[in-house]
Amino acid sequence: MKKLILSTALATLMALPAFAPAQAQEPKHGGNMVVTYKDDVATLDPAIGYDWQNWSMIKSVFDGLMDYEPGTTNLRPGLAESHEISEDGLTYTFKLRPGVKFHNGRELVADDVVYSINRVINPATQSPGQGFFSMIDGYDAAAAGKAATVTGVSAPDASTVVFKLSRPDATFLHVMALNFSSVVPKEAVEEAGADFGKKPVGTGAFKLTEWTLGQRLVFEKNADYWIPGVPYLDSFTVEVGQEPVVALLRAQNGEVDIPGDGIPPAKFVEVMKDEAQKSLVVEGGQLHTGYITMNVTKAPFDKVEVRRAVNMAINKDRIVQVINGRAVPATQPLPPSMPGYTKGYDGYKFDQEGAKKLLAEAGYADGFETELFVMNTDPNPRIAQAIQQDLKAIGINASIKSLAQANVIEAGGAGNAPMIWSGGMAWIADFPDPANFYGPILGCAGTVEGGWNWSKYCNEDLDKLAAEADSIVDPAKVDERLAKWSEIYMKVMEDAPWAPVFNEQRYTLKSARMGGDNALYVDPVSIPVNYDYVFIKE
């Protein structure tokens, strides 16, 4: 993976790259873009917001020390113009960019960074991102509420922030680019209190100027933004309460620039058969895998032969057709666009007879009965039915439990679901690093009550290998680290706690007047669109 590391282990500072992406068209300034969503936005507090809908809005209102090149997974500097890493990989020293201002007009200082990180870790904030900072020295005490602040974050002067880690962690710079690491002004948070998510103040390219609950949010250009010439739009409006089919119709009529919920499954074939509409569709990969979990702590899934048989029973090509070909068959937990993905590995081949043989070896020659939990939103029940048919062909009778998303997640976290189809809840990486697909959903830490490791799979040897991989922080050894992650995921596939099914592609419709590289509309880290760099051509 190409990583933009701004220093070597010997702490050499490098010059900053250009910030604007190379565009096929010359960007134009001005205009208002209209985006629609079915659901209202829950919050714009970067410490709290954790869903795909508000993720890119938060990214446009706030900044962190690190960021990504638009439309890519390549790290670049953010509010920190440079940084140094100590030779042992335990100390990161960031130099802040001078002259950056919050939307309230106050200049950013290092104490703001210290406050923001501590705010996320403080249990009173109830941030879903708290655990991402566990490598910082003093985290355990602060996260448990036994210390007011973490000892590992300090501001020696107004332009310098120092992080001391308790262990080397190669994902740390990615964590600094997460929304949870966004820098907020203490005075604005304290003034707004619980309403900060509705009255956000950041340093980002846009500032929120209107929020009419249930109707719209309006974001206007930050004239003082620290990146020259950005953003290109004067504003963008997010209209909520729009059913996806209605939003698509409005987009076809030129009233909407981006239907944020995407092309409704029922309309996908119709859109793709119409050349005029198809020309406005943008396709891109996602850091996503759809999979079937099997609870390895309970019979019959405590036997690896059974889990491997399930993998061999699934006709992935047929399931991809259920969603009109909007995915590619998956062979492993990592998606193809993720660093560490094992190229050339074919996974478990579709082989019903081979699957039956494995079941017989496990003592289930006559099959067995089980339950398959699924989120009750189309197309997931239809996918579950296809899985059910595949399992029946080898003697496994799986009754489908179609429930609301929250109920499936609860059953998975409690360990009450023998099998779960992850669709609609499938893991989309928080950052483009293979570690993020392991710890929360395949590592031992994720097996806790309420955790996201629904297979309850815990391989302590692999946890140790994962820790070893993430202790490799030298940029010159990135290939060595990724090779270790490849080894980890291949061992996961041997144990087969999952049956990976497909890697879903993203399809976005944009109006004919919208410009900018297509990658900006399927940005892998600014899901669903990078508002800062798109523009109106007309």
From TrEMBL:
One of the record's GO cellular component terms: ATP-binding cassette (ABC) transporter complex
GO molecular function: peptide transmembrane transporter activity
Top-level division of the source organism's lineage: Bacteria
Gene Ontology terms: biological process: peptide transport
Key words, A-Z: Signal, Transport
Location relative to the cell: Periplasm
SUPFAM superfamilies: Periplasmic binding protein-like II
Keyword match Signal: yes
Pfam families named among the record's database cross-references: SBP_bac_5
Ranges where the Solute-binding protein family domain occurs: 75-446
Family under the similarity heading: Belongs to the bacterial solute-binding protein 5 family.
Protein name per Swiss-Prot or TrEMBL: Solute-binding protein family 5 domain-containing protein
Organism: Ciceribacter selenitireducens ATCC BAA-1503
